[in-house]
Amino acid sequence: MVKCYLEDKTLLVEILSTELDHHVARNVRMEVDEILMKKQIDYLIFDFQYVNFMDSSGIGVIIGRYKKIVSHGGRVSAINMNSRLKKLFNLSGMNKIINIYDSFEDAINS
Predict the structure, then answer these.
(1) How many alpha carbons lie under 13 Å from residue 4 in its C-beta half-sphere?
(2) What is the CATH number of the domain that holds 41?
(3) How far is it, in rounded angstroms, from Cα 91 to Cα 77?
(4) CA distance 55 to 57
(5) In DSSP terms, which residues pair with 21 in a beta bridge?
(6) 10 Å Cβ neighbour count for 24?
(7) Cα(26)–Cα(58) distance, integer angstroms
């Protein structure tokens, strides 16, 4: 359901499910938090390439990881989002605190 790739202090979280609901959000939370406890992460990137739907649990897991990362000066971005997820980010206000990019390369080069 989730794959994590770590390079230097950048963590890419690829969500492999089409829905980021309470079941998947729990797995994402556990995987990411385990890495955050062991490593200093300055840049967290969520890859939404496969995600078509996100509920409040998904929003919660994204915001929770955001709070952990920015508490020590890090940043969080989202990539590969469809128009439905971008609209959800806009409506929820997450677009004001989490940058949205089309690709991993765009996020890294920002």
Answers:
(1) 18
(2) 3.30.750.24
(3) 17
(4) 5
(5) none
(6) 22
(7) 9
- Residue 85: closest CA among 30, 20, 23: 20
Q: For 71-105, what is each residue's pLDDT tens digit?
A: 999 999 999 999 999 999 999 999 999 999 999 99
Both tokens of 9, joined, read: 């202090």
**Run of H or E residues at 18:** none
Q: For residue 55, what are its two tokens?
A: 């509920």
Count of positions (residues) in the chain: 110
Range of the domain at 94: 2-109
Which amino acid, residue 40?
Answer: Q
Report the pLDDT value the prediction gives residue 81, as an integer from 0 to 100: 97
As for how many domains the chain has, the answer is 1
